[in-house]
Amino acid sequence: MASYPEKIAYGMANHCMNRKTVVFLSLVKTSQKFRDLLNEKGFKAAEVNGNSKDRDRVLEDFENDKYNVLCNSMLLTEGWDSPAVDCIVVLSSTRVRPLYRQMVGRGTHLFPGKDHLLLLDFLWHTDRHVLVHLAHLIVENEEVAKEATQMIEEVGGPVDIEEIQDSTAEEATAKREEALAKRLEKLRRKKKRLVNPIQFAMDIEDKDLTNYQPLFGWEAEKPSKEQINQIEKAGIDPTEIDSKGQADKLINAIKSREA
After folding, report:
1. Which of 68, 69, 213, 218 is close enough to 45 for a disulfide, judged by CB 3.0 to 4.6 Å?
2. Are 34 and 120 in contact (CB under 8 A)?
3. 4-131: what CATH class?
4. How far apart are CA 36 and CA 141, in angstroms?
5. What are the residue ranges spanned by the domains of the chain?
6. Are 91 and 123 in contact (CB under 8 A)?
C-alpha cells in the first residue's frame, strides 16, 4: 500500500507535472525526502533550507527552469519571490492564518501568460483558513467580509460592496449573538464544571498535546460524536477540541492516566 507522501506525489504528478511549483514542508529531512520522491515520479525537483550552501544557485536554477519544483521547510515564506510560480503545495501544518497566507502568496504574483494559481491543500488547511476575497480588501471585520463574499457569490454579478456592508454587518452580528445565546444556554444546562483541554494538557505536562498541530488530512477532520462523548465523560470540555487528531491524542492521554 502506498504511503501518504507517495499518494501526494502521485496526485501532484496528475495535476502539476508541467507547472512551476513550490512545496512547503515542516522539517528539512522531510523536505529532502519528498524532493527525492518527486524526482522518482519524473519531476525536476530541488530542495533548499537554512543550511544550504548552494541555496542561491538552486534558486537561480529554479528561476531559469532547470527545476520545476522547489521543496523547502518554511524557508521561502517571505523575502523571496518568483512571479512565474503557478502552483503551491502546502504540506506544513499551521493554524496561523498570516503564515498560511504567506505560503499561498508565493504564487499570487502576476506574470505574463499566467492567469491563475493552482493551490494543492493536501492537509485541508482551507477548512481552517479563509483565503482573501474581494470583500476582505474593503471590509475589516472578518465575519462581515465572509457574509459579503457569500452575498456576492449568490448574486453572481457586479455588486457595490460598500452598499451591502451595513446589511451584512447587521446579519453577522445577529448570527453571532444567536450563536452566543445557544452556547450560554448549553453551558447552563451542564451539571458540572468541565476542565479546559489545554489546561488539562498543561497540568499533566504533556507538551505534545499542548502544542498539537494536525499533520494528515484525517487529523484535521472534526471530532466524532464518540470522541466527544468520551472526552466529556472524562470531565473535559469537548467544545474546545478542534480536530479528530487532537481528540484522539487527548483520549490516549486520559487513558494513560487512568491505567
Report:
1. 69
2. no
3. alpha beta
4. 43
5. 4-131, 136-189, 197-258
6. yes
Quote the CA–CA distance of 248 and 99 in Å, as a whole number.
26
What per-residue confidence (pLDDT) applies to 169? 66
- Other beta carbons within 10 Å of 74: 19
Place of cell 522518482: 40
Q: Kindly compute the dihedral angle of the four CA atoms of residues 6, 7, 12, 17, in this order, to the nearest 10 degrees.
A: 60
Residues belonging to the chain: 259
Distance CA 141, CA 229 (A): 34
Cα–Cα distance, 13 to 7 (Å, whole number): 10
Q: Which three cell numbers stand for residue 150?
A: 457569500
Return the SS3 of 6: helix
State the Cα–Cα distance between residues 238 and 186, nearest whole angstrom. Answer: 12
CA atoms within 13 A on the CB side of 162: 0
Q: Which range scores top for mean pLDDT: 83-92, 116-125, 162-171?
A: 83-92
Looking up cell 506574470 gives 111
Average pLDDT in the 159-181 region?
68
For residue 117, which amino acid is it? Answer: L
Predicted confidence (pLDDT) at residue 72 exceeds the cutoff of 70: yes
Per-residue cell: 213:
498541530
User: In this structure, what DSSP letter does residue 242 have?
Assistant: -
